[in-house]
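Q: Got a minute? One more chain.
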Amino acid sequence: MAGRESIFNLRRLVSRQAAVVAFIAFCLIGAGLTTWRHQAAERKETSTMTETSVSHVNAASLISLNGRTFEQSDGLQGAVVGEYQGYFDGKTRSFTLQPRGNRSSDGKGSQLYSRSDPSGEVSQGAGFSFRVVRSALVGNAEQSATVTGEIELTNNTSATLYNTRIVFTSFKVTNAGGADAGNLPGANGFAYFNDGQVAYGGKLSVSRDYGDIAAAGKSTRVWSFAVANQPPTFFFTYRVIADLGVAAESVAPAAVQVNASSGTSVTISGRGFSGTPTVEFVPATGAAVAATNVTATATSITATVPAGTAAGIYSVRVTNPGGTAGGQGSSTIRGRLTVTGVPTNTLSGSIPGGAFAEGGAYLVTGAASLGSSTPIPPGTVIYVAGGATISLSGGGNINADGGIPGVSATAGQIVFTAQRSPGASVPSSGAWGGIDATSAATSQIMMRNVVVEYGGGAGLAGINISGSGRTLRFTDGIIRNSSGSGLRALGTNDSVVGFARNRIENNGLSVNDPALLLSGNAALGLYDLPVTGATIATSVGDASYYYSSANDFAGNQVNAVRIGTTSDAASNDFSESGVLVGQGTTPIQIAGDCSNPAIVGAPAPGMAELTITPSATIQLAADLNLQAGDYASDRVGCIAANGYAGVYLGSQPGAPAANSLITFDKIPSGGNFGAIFFARNAMDNCILNYVSVKNGGAASSCSLGNAAVISDGTNVKVTNSQVNDSATGGLLAISGAKIDSRGTTTSNTTPIIDTVIGGQLGDGNPGLKVNIITPAVAAADPMDRGVYFVDSASSGNFIRFFNTTRNTVTIGGMKVAPGTIRTVVGGGLDGDENVPGRVADSGTVTGLAVSPNGEVLYYVDSIIAAVRAWNASNSNKTIDGRTIASGNVGTLSAGPASGQFGNILNGLAVHPTSGDVYVVDATPGINRVFKIPAAGGAATEFAGNGATTPRNEPLSNGAAATSVPLLQPRALTFDPAGNLYIADTGHGRVARVDGGGSIFSVYQLDVPPPPGSWNNPHLGGLAFYGGKLYATLGNQQTIVEVTNPASASSSGTVVAGTPDASCDYSSSTCGDGGTIDQSAFNMLGSTATPPLASIASDSKGIFVLDQGAAFKGRIRYINLSANPVEVAGVAIQPDNINTVAGSGVASPFEGALASSADLAAPIGVTVDGNGNLWLTNSTANRLQFVNCGTTTVTIFQGTQAEQTVAPGTIVSVNKDVGNGPTDGAPVNSAAFDTPQGIVATSQGLFLADSRRGPTITTMQRRTGLIRFINTSASNVTFYSSGGTGIPITVPPGNIATIAGGGIGDVTDGANPTSARFLGPTDIAIHPTSGDIYVADAGQQTGTSSSSTAASRIRRINRQTGAVSTILTGTVNDAYTGLSFDSAGRLLVANAGRKTTTTNFGNSAILREKASGQCATTPAGCFDTILSGGTGSLLRNPRDVAEGKDGALYVTNAGPSELGRSDNKLLRIVVNGTTGTASVFSGDVQGYSGDGGPAANALLNLEATDFQTSTAGTRFDVRVNISILVTPNGEIIFSDSKNNAIRRIR
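A: Always. Here it is, folded:
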């Protein structure tokens, strides 16, 4: 299907690679030519503008003009006064247009049948003129060479040109006498973006619709051809057709009865009627019949067909007073009125197949049915009595072929209409029951040039095939005046094809009656291809290039094509691939709501792709999601809406007037729709290009995210588009997705935040793409929604939830996408009650358990020795007498009534019916299991007596559980009956406590182990499934099964793992995908922290936490059921095991998803010209690259530093540091020391390497360097006119120092590599001069260790290398951040420096007074836009950037030396030279908010100063915390203490 990579489907149709060429020219009367040229080899964008137009001639009549008399075409077509020709030269790439000197054979008698039947050719100059508004030749890597432009047509007459259409009458290759051009791009053909084929001159021709043009008015359209990359020379002719001053557009009824004594009235609809027009009924031969009783308004005429009018098919001609019949002021409806006598043939009941074979007029009464194939010849009229219905049984069919008007020589309309006697009044809508073809059948109904009118009762349709599975071919016809819809085809197997050149009018009585009511699949046939044997002049004969169908919709109750109904879940789905063709200005509406999304997709391994044509208007119901694919039902699909052929692609100034984007909008008067949603299993390379998305983002209870366009785990393009007026955000990528949003803008939407790099180890990503460090404890959700687990990382413990289903799960008010992992508790520092889980300090978590209803997650915080609870429900819960909000944390119990717990709490379990919580306290001297009531309160002893006993102490079976000793108990689990199993790890056994409180040994290991055993036995985890107990032996790396745990001293069998052998995936798959007896593990053993090899069971099997010992954690699943199961999309056979979560990649996760990366205080970030990110991972001293696109890219191609990077992944550029030279060499071996600010240009990267320079021994300070990495394919030379030691040339893929290295006093001079930089933190490049500006934040005066702080802004002249200072600060200043605004003025963030008198120093935002002023006149060249400090929002700002809205955005980090930070992004609105600040994002310290409004997010911008001192007196320097604004307005910044790069769209 068309649409993905270009409108002409260049990606998928490899043999059809094409360029798009728009012919941009104007015509001159006479022999003059206008030529528009481009050099053949020119590929970059160029522009021309032609303002010349022809002389305007005001023509009152188009019959005699400029002294010339023009031939009339037998009084029907109007004057044939102009034919034009042009050609495209494939070598010179130029178009030429001119009036055609000789008439072609299709001239005289040419007839036009289009959707409004325009009836006059209009001459260039006499009637109209062309003008080139703007034009350009563009070409880049994304798109083949494209010549694009707007053509303006001016109406030079004194009358309105209605229904103006340009018709291309011939396409030739090589020259005017060459062969007919093919209709696909190639050496012998091309394709044209068009508004449908219309009948002209006995043939079908493609056309471009210019609509109505008022007198002296203008209309503009984009014209585009698609040709091969090496296009042929081709030739074309075209004509301009319009209704001249008046437009008669329809006549109803289409058939009337007259007799000798009574005539019958008709109604003519149109525009521009004046006075009392003359109405004539014109037969194919013979004299016209004058209408009687003519009355008129501007849009409607009532006239009577006189008594005694001969039977036959007539055209209806309307001529305004003063007009010329067949010329100006006259309009003709061709062949749309059939006059008959009173029918003598009456049919009812079962009608035989040959009943209509003789043609003529028939009357159908009662409940009539067709039981066989029924041919109906041209000219037939079937009158249907009131209340009667024509039904088609399963074997019934209609073959009504009236031919294509204007093409078929024997064409004659076939009419189904309401019975009306001569002289009777006009029938009412729905006077008869319509054509009911809802009986199941597979046959095709043929209806060409057929009128179906006044049929279809309320809620039904004129033609109804819903649910039948039939195919309806309806072409060149009319459906009108139904009480319901014109056509209903709501079945998923129903098909409508060839739907072109039709008029659908005056249908429906309520808002539930759209013009057409179709299923998604049936809507894929609203166009026609020339497969019917019709003579073709110019065409596009392939669905990949066919874009419109010349249908006309008028006067319907709902003037729209509606797809589906809210109540029928399947009706709005697209389960078949196809093209949804725009219907001009008539919208296509898709019904449904949030519980009934419109899904494009077919069950895997099948697929369905929906291509939406340029300029289409799609309206979506309130709360509806239009989905590409559906993960829950495993449907694979794609949406390809590529509208670039409908827009001007050049960059000339001014807004193009003719751009017509594909539009997605809400249904008028309805609420906002949900989202265009690309599901996890959407196909690759789905695309929205040149689309407008308006009024989406509904925040309903079942919304899939907070945005109008959402991608869930798939990579899509949303390029060159507009997303406006969303109820929430604009674009949102979740679950590791990537949205290529280059060229896309948003407005009037809520800013939405997400993490693009780093953060909490891939939070929100699919399980298999998440980086897990040390999974320690697990608890399965009893509602089978997934599993909770604890990930023990260097930055703390995180409790995470893994959604193992195919549906979105909402827990704690948080939506967790299918198959993804989200942190629910941990990451903050707050230990209070009723605080959000994401800001809570989780401590060290050594136990997890879930309430029986899944609404409360309990966990052990062993640092404070308490059992705490996270409210996993979506409403408030009472925990230990306190109200805990959804998603918040509270304490259940801190110990028994006699005192606190000990300091080693190791496991949790929840009773399956009472909900009481049980916890293990393995503290020496305690060694007990405690019971905590579900309502909270003090804990009571349940098992263990606290006595110290040897490891081989036997258990007294049947004794009271509180009377026996336990030793280092580690884990607990319940069986369904409420028996508690205890891992009495020190004694090497599992004990069972029954409901009466008695204890029994159910599994005993040898303690100490037998000779030759690898390790002491160490019971680490327990789970119960299917009447069997499962236990992990972490030291032996096995899982044992106890088959009869109800009996004392049961035996256990190793069912998984290889005894005394570990497996870390370095040389094998550790049994993944195979049977469990072949598996191997690397679980946590007795020496791990914590020493817990946890497992958890759900309804189908067991989750195993593995690879924690290797810090490459995985969650694996053992299927213990009898049937295959799926866990988070991973299929697992019975008795098999497989990894379901964890990437298996070790920190720092090179090559993994960037949003799963492990960063270390990232500082600098920049975006390159391709939208990809480069960042300085400062503490780790790494330069990293992230591919933010949707396709694989290669960086530093052809050099030693070359790397191939998959979409969405991150790599370290200096991955080989230590294996070669670190400077003046390939960048892969580069070494850095606290790299900070970085900026990308088309040539490469400029980087502030804050501590990489030589040491100044007298100061005991480490200097910094300014370095350059060449990312281009050519050498880059600096300082071509400089002095000693320069110029500096940097080859592709290399890094070189371009400034810094001096150790003397801070002096400016001509040699940049002798200049001294102390703690440089940021760089900015002047947008025109290319000069390099450096924030020399740690600079000091002199060369002694006691030198005074004197932060500076330095400038390096790109041409000469001269270094100069443009701003010198005081001891209170620290210039850390730089950027340029849209006016080329330098912006400076002054973080201020703490002194004995102030914590904030001179915190301020500065702006250069005029672009370049500081380079020439440094003194006083800055304005202070906003000062900070105590009482101000601005406190130690670190960086600043200008947004697309003109406001300044600032990373406001606050003073690290106070032990806290402000953790905010500020937005500063500037009025003149004064700024006003407000908080844009952030509040208290934390990490949350991804996928939601930026205003609600929590950040952690705490900025730890770095020091340049190497010994002696400490000298701390403020760090930069980078912020930038991308070309399409996205804000990207470093959330440094959260180890993340985040984005606000």
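A: The longest helix spans residues 1413-1416.
Q: Perfect, thanks.
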